[in-house]
């Protein structure tokens, strides 16, 4: 299920809920398919996006909302626009109800609630003035694998990742 996205010039951000398929297989399929499409369409060769993907486990709805805000503010942070609502390659207009849901899962509406006031509050949350790294995302993306949530959730998730990594060696 796709909850938020933003396509940047050399990378992208997705907020996904996955069930059984490993995230590595999902991302490999997605990036390979898109690279084939892009290269064929624009007569380009090679990878389209830089670096390997990074994933973050998200514990709860409040952390998800913060993550979606980070995703929607990325074009602003990279100096592409002065207002994230002016960036055409994100799902911000779908989530705010200005466009019908085309790519996003309908469950996202349940999280924000399908009322004008709730969407208005979410829009204000996205556009709100906070320090650049108010949610600690810059530090999260420096790590190989990360978790966004309470201390106990993050600790459990990082221990599980470390055990998986040791077993795969």
Description:
The chain is mostly helical and 169 residues long. The chain has 7 helices and 4 strands; from the N terminus they run E-E-H-E-H-H-H-H-H-E-H. It has helices at residues 23-42, 61-77, 92-95, 107-112, 116-127, 137-142, 151-167, and strands at residues 2-7, 12-16, 55-58, 145-148. The strands form 2 sheets. It has a two-stranded antiparallel sheet. A hairpin with a 4-residue loop joins strand 1 (2-7) and strand 2. The longest helix has 20 residues, at 23-42. It is globular. The protein starts with a strand and ends with a helix. The model has no long low-confidence stretch (mean pLDDT 79).
Strand order of the largest sheet: 1-2
How many DSSP E strands?
4
The DSSP helix count reads 7
Based on CA inertia axes, which overall geometry fits? globular
* Helix content percent band: 40-55%
The secondary-structure class comes to mainly alpha
Return residue spans where pLDDT drops below 50 for at least 5 consecutive residues.
Answer: none
Q: How many angstroms separate the termini?
A: 31 Å
Helix and strand run = EEHEHHHHHEH
Q: What is the rounded Rg?
A: 17 Å
Arithmetic mean of pLDDT: 79
Strand content: 5-15%
Q: Biggest β-sheet: count, sense, barrel?
A: 2 strands, antiparallel
């Amino acid at each position: 299920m796709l909850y938020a996205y933003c396509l940047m010039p050399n990378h992208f951000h997705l907020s996904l809920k996955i069930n059984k398929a490993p995230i590595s297989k999902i991302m490999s399929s997605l990036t390979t398919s898109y690279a084939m499409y892009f290269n064929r369409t624009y007569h380009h060769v090679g990878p389209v996006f830089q670096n390997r993907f990074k994933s973050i486990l998200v514990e709860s709805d409040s952390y998800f909302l913060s993550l979606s805000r980070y995703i929607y503010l990325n074009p602003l942070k990279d100096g592409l626009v002065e207002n994230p609502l002016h960036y055409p390659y994100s799902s911000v207009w779908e989530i705010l109800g200005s466009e019908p849901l085309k790519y996003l899962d309908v469950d996202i509406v349940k999280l924000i609630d399908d009322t004008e006031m709730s969407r208005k509050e979410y829009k204000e949350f996205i556009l709100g003035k906070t320090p650049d790294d108010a949610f600690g995302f810059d530090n999260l993306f420096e790590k190989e694998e990360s978790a966004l949530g309470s201390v106990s959730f993050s600790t459990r998730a990082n221990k599980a990742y470390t055990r998986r990594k040791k077993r795969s060696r």
